[in-house]
């Protein structure tokens, strides 16, 4: 019956079709059966309304945050290896890191000073007091286990880090905690409690204070971000080169992948969204 | 029984002991509505029925027997008299003229009586004769065993069912009264018009019960003032000490003995509710019977307890074991202390490849070893007095073997005080560490517990608090295996001690509620433990029918022998499991001896909460 009607509809002369414009309503008798579908039926559909089209160079710029964090992790591991080999004394590390932090703090210079000083002192004091405990903490656990644990925790740090995107996986506190846990694990392998203190304090500066400084810098001085990225990447590669050329090359490759290959890939896949 | 009876058959309840009586008049109740006769007794002396009914009308004024009357004739052929002679002696026309009377007769050489009925219409299609053993005062007939808890069970065991509801229970109530009523009738037949001499025989009993009531009243007066404070203190002490608990139990046993003599308050309230008209009747039916089984069980349990205790004490003192016990105790205590220090030394060196923190293990070991050292000093201090203490403890066995056992339990808990201390320290430490770890783990993932919403919420923490939190989290996490190992070892030790103490407690409990007397009664005189009734079919004996014919002897309207079934009404014994499972005295609901379920125990062990004796946490209130 219905198909019969549709057939009738097709057979209607063109003038009548043009005269009555079909509307997408059911309450009106338009001389067609209920299951009639006009050509204009899907006209109002919208696909991928909020698609953002990315520019290649802007993606490359944003990927700088990832490169920075990877470099930080690489620097931290390199520092640990230097200290474990005895090439770096803890006092040198502490002084160097403190000077850098101080410079960063002056750069930062946005918050009220006294509160920061207090919390900084509190943290340093507690790390200093606890460093003997931290040193003996993992005595009975084998070094391989510690390294595996550290690798896992640093990977968690990279995964959960806040790169400026909004995602469910991002958790600033979890990423910070993972890196601190890793630093405590690594530090407990070092020979003296002074080493432990320097390493944990350095980790604190590198993973807790430095990211917020970078974030502030990026907000106020967007042009400085490129500079910070280059410096960090170069320092990380420079520190890795004497230890192992292979790993330094690998790090370079990772940076290239993160900065150029992945954005290119993203842009290429962009076309599939429509 | 099971099938619904549409036209109620005639039922005659006849006392079994009356089967031996000579021919006479049947006195009993006639339940017209139920179509049942309940025979009370047979009067064989030469009273005429008119005289008897006069007497009954007099009795009715005094006692409340509802409708006690002559309801038939009992004919026993055995003594050698012929039927006609018997009839001539006993049956008068005046009696036989009234209708609805029964004639029960026992033919010669027969066990089962036969039933005849005096009535015009011979429409009866059959009858049931139930022979019953007359119940005594302490063993009433009832439909089923009481289902009450502990002491109330024992009390109800000897008490007839209240508030007769079904037809059967109404009849049973009459049967329960039958003994007393028969006594009254026999007293009346001896031509004593007053019934007082019958009740006067119990003067000694009433004197005792009066005295006990006075004492109880005094006690309750004293108790009410200091009760709450006393109770609190006693409860607290009994949580900790088995000896105090045992004293308490003994006091309760004495109290229960007193309670045997006293009617519980509930009945008095019941009586006051009943209207004044019925109160006289209720007094006679609901009068409290003396719970002899309960009384006997309590007395026998205590007697066995005490005599066994005295026997053991005399054996110990006779062989001089009391001197050796002191040395033995000292030796064992020293051995335990040495074993413990060896165990602590072993734990210090990270046994079985456990990932322990060496520094913490050493620290804890030193701490616990110091306790053992203190314990040894304490032992050497009390050694001179130990002889006297042992003597006192052993002498306490004179109060009963349960006291001796509870003292042994006490001594055990004193001698394993160090284990208890270790357990408490380890559990507290472990519990603390576990709780903090959970909190810090939440911090680790950037969340925290909101008390107001009672849920976990995400909070932006500051970097320094995160840093410190993670630092402590790492430290506690790596120290957890060490703490957990100490906790596990000391928990196992503590559980072993608790197991021994639990076994001793179980023995004490059994001794306190020894069901020797009920079992003995069940063997010797099962009537005293009524747990419901049963009917037993009595096979009818075949006898020559033509020998006996009442219709020849006398007048009209007597039916031929009704086709009848003969049943015997028995009192059943209470199930033995029930006798054993019911304690003689009530247990407090929040008694420390009450067990906790296995699952909560396991969860408590896992969380490091104290298992026994536990202290209520502040949060739970």
Q: What can you see in these coordinates?
A:
The complex is a heterodimer of chains A (274) and B (621). By secondary structure, chain A is mostly helical. Chain A is built from 11 helices and no strands. Chain A has helices at 2-10, 14-19, 56-62, 64-85, 90-108, 113-137, 143-160, 172-187, 193-220, 224-243, 245-270. In chain A, helix 4 (64-85) runs antiparallel to helix 9 and helix 6 (113-137) runs antiparallel to helix 9. The radius of gyration of chain A is 30 Å and the shape is elongated. Chain B has 20 helices and 11 strands. With 621 residues, chain B is an alpha/beta fold. In chain B, a hairpin with a 4-residue loop joins strand 2 (24-31) and strand 3 (36-43). In chain B, the strands form 2 sheets. Chain B has a 9-stranded mixed beta sheet with strand order 6-5-4-2-3-1-7-11-10, with helices on one face. Chain B has a two-stranded antiparallel sheet with strand order 8-9. Chain B has helices at residues 49-62, 83-90, 93-97, 150-157, 167-189, 196-200, 203-240, 242-261, 265-273, 276-285, 292-319, 321-348, 358-395, 401-415, 417-444, 463-512, 516-524, 550-553, 576-581, 598-607, and strands at residues 10-15, 24-31, 36-43, 69-76, 101-106, 114-118, 127-132, 447-450, 455-458, 530-537, 564-573. The model of chain B is unreliable at 1-6, 61-65, 192-201, 265-286, 544-548, 551-556, 589-594 and 615-621 (pLDDT under 50). In chain B, helix 11 (292-319) packs across helix 14 and helix 15 (417-444) runs antiparallel to helix 16. In chain B, 57% of the residues lie in helices and 12% in strands.
Largest sheet features of chain B: 9 strands, mixed
**Secondary-structure class of chain B:** alpha/beta
According to DSSP, the number of beta strands of chain B is 11
Shape of chain A: elongated
- Gap between N and C termini of chain B, in Å? 56 Å
| Rg of Cα set of chain A | 30 Å
Helix content of chain A: over 70%
Which ranges of chain B are low-confidence, i.e. pLDDT below 50, for 5 or more consecutive residues? 1-6, 61-65, 192-201, 265-286, 544-548, 551-556, 589-594, 615-621
Determine the number of helices of chain B (DSSP H or I, runs of at least 4 residues): 20
Oligomer status: heterodimer
How many DSSP-defined strands of chain A?
A: 0
Bin the strand percentage of chain B: 5-15%
Strand percent estimate of chain A: under 5%
Radius of gyration of chain B: 37 Å
Give the SSE order of chain A as H and E letters.
HHHHHHHHHHH
Task: Report low-confidence residues of chain A grouped into runs of 5 or more.
Answer: 1-8
How would the global form of chain B be characterised? elongated
Most extensive interface between two protein chains, with residue counts: A-B, 30 and 26 residues
Pfam families (chain B): Gpi1 (PF05024)
InterPro entries (chain B): PigQ/GPI1
GO cellular component, one term (chain B): endoplasmic reticulum
Organism (chain B): Acropora cervicornis (Staghorn coral)
């Amino acid at each position: 019956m219905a198909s019969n009607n549709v057939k009738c509809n097709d057979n209607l002369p063109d003038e009548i079709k043009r005269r009555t414009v079909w509307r997408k309503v059911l309450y009106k008798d338009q001389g067609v059966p209920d299951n009639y579908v006009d050509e204009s039926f899907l006209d109002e559909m919208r696909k991928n309304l909020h698609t953002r089209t990315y520019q290649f160079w802007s993606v490359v710029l944003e990927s700088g945050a990832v490169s920075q964090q990877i470099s930080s992790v690489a620097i931290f591991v390199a520092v640990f290896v230097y200290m474990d080999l005895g090439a770096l004394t803890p006092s040198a590390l502490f002084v160097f890191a403190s000077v850098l932090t101080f410079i960063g703090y002056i750069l930062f210079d946005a918050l009220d000073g006294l509160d920061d000083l207090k919390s900084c002192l509190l943290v340093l004091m507690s790390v200093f007091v606890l460093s003997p405990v931290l040193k003996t903490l993992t005595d009975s656990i084998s070094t391989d286990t510690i390294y595996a644990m550290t690798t896992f925790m640093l990977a968690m740090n990279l995964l959960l880090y806040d790169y400026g995107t909004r995602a469910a996986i991002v958790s600033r506190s979890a990423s910070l905690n993972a890196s601190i846990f890793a630093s405590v694990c690594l530090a407990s392998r070092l020979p003296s409690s002074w080493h432990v203190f320097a390493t944990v304090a350095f980790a604190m500066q590198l993973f807790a204070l430095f990211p917020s400084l970078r974030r502030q810098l990026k907000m106020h001085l967007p042009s400085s971000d490129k500079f910070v990225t280059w410096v960090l990447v170069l320092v990380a590669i420079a520190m890795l080169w004497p230890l192992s050329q292979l790993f330094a090359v690998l790090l370079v490759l990772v940076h290239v992948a993160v900065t150029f290959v992945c954005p290119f890939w993203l842009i290429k896949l962009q076309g599939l969204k429509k | 029984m099971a099938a619904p009876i549409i036209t109620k058959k005639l039922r005659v309840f006849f006392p079994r002991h009356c089967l031996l009586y000579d021919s006479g008049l049947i006195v009993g109740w006639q339940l017209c509505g139920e179509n049942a006769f309940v025979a009370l007794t047979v009067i064989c002396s030469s009273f005429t029925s008119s005289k008897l009914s006069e007497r009954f009308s007099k009795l009715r004024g005094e006692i409340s027997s509802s409708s006690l009357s002559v309801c038939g004739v009992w004919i026993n052929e055995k003594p050698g008299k012929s039927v006609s002679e018997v009839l001539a002696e006993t049956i008068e026309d005046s009696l036989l003229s009234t209708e609805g009377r029964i004639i029960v007769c026992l033919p010669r050489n027969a066990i089962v009586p036969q039933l005849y009925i005096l009535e015009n219409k011979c429409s009866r299609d059959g009858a049931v004769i139930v022979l019953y053993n007359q119940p005594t005062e302490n063993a009433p007939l009832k439909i089923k065993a009481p289902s009450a808890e502990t002491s109330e069970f024992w009390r109800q065991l000897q008490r007839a069912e209240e508030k007769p509801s079904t037809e059967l229970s109404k009849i049973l109530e009459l049967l329960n009264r039958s003994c007393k009523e028969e006594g009254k009738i026999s007293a009346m037949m001896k031509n004593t018009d007053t019934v007082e001499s019958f009740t006067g025989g119990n003067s000694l009993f009433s004197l005792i019960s009066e005295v006990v009531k006075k004492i109880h009243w005094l006690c309750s007066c004293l108790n009410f003032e200091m009760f709450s404070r006393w109770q609190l203190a006693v409860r607290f002490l009994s949580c900790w000490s088995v000896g105090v608990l045992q004293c308490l139990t003994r006091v309760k046993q004495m109290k229960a003995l007193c309670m045997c003599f006293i009617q519980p308050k509930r009945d008095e309230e019941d009586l006051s509710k009943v209207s004044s008209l019925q109160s006289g009747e209720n007094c006679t039916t609901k009068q409290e019977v003396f719970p002899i089984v309960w009384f006997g069980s309590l007395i026998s349990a205590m007697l066995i307890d005490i005599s066994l205790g005295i026997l053991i004490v005399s054996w110990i003192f006779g062989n001089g074991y009391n001197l050796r016990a002191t040395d033995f105790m000292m030796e064992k205590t020293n051995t335990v202390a040495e074993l413990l220090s060896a165990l602590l030394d072993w734990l210090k060196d990270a046994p079985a490849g456990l990932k322990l923190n060496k520094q913490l293990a050493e620290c804890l070991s030193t701490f616990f070893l110091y306790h053992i050292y203190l314990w040894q000093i304490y032992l050497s201090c009390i050694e001179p007095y130990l002889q006297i203490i042992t003597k006192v403890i052993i002498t306490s066995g004179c109060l009963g073997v349960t006291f001796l056992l509870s003292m042994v339990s006490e001594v055990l808990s004193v001698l394993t005080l160090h284990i208890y201390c270790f357990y408490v320290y380890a559990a507290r430490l472990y519990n603390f560490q576990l709780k903090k770890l959970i909190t810090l783990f939440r911090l680790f993932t950037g969340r925290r517990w909101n008390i107001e919403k009672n849920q976990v919420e995400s909070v932006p923490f500051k970097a320094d608090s995160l840093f410190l939190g993670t630092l402590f989290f790492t430290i506690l996490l790596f120290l957890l295996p060490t703490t957990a190992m100490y906790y596990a070892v000391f928990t196992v030790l503590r559980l072993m001690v608790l197991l021994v103490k639990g076994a001793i407690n179980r023995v004490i409990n059994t001794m306190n509620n020894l069901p020797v007397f009920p079992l003995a009664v069940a063997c010797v005189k099962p009537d005293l433990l009524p747990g419901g009734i049963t009917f037993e079919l009595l096979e009818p004996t075949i006898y020559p029918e033509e020998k006996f014919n009442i219709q020849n002897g006398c007048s009209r309207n007597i039916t031929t022998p009704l086709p009848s079934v003969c049943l015997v009404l028995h009192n059943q014994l209470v199930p033995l499991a029930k006798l054993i499972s019911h304690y003689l005295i009530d247990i407090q609901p929040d008694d420390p001896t009450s067990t906790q379920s296995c699952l909560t125990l396991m969860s408590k062990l896992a969380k490091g909460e104290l298992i026994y004796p536990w202290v209520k946490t502040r949060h739970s209130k």
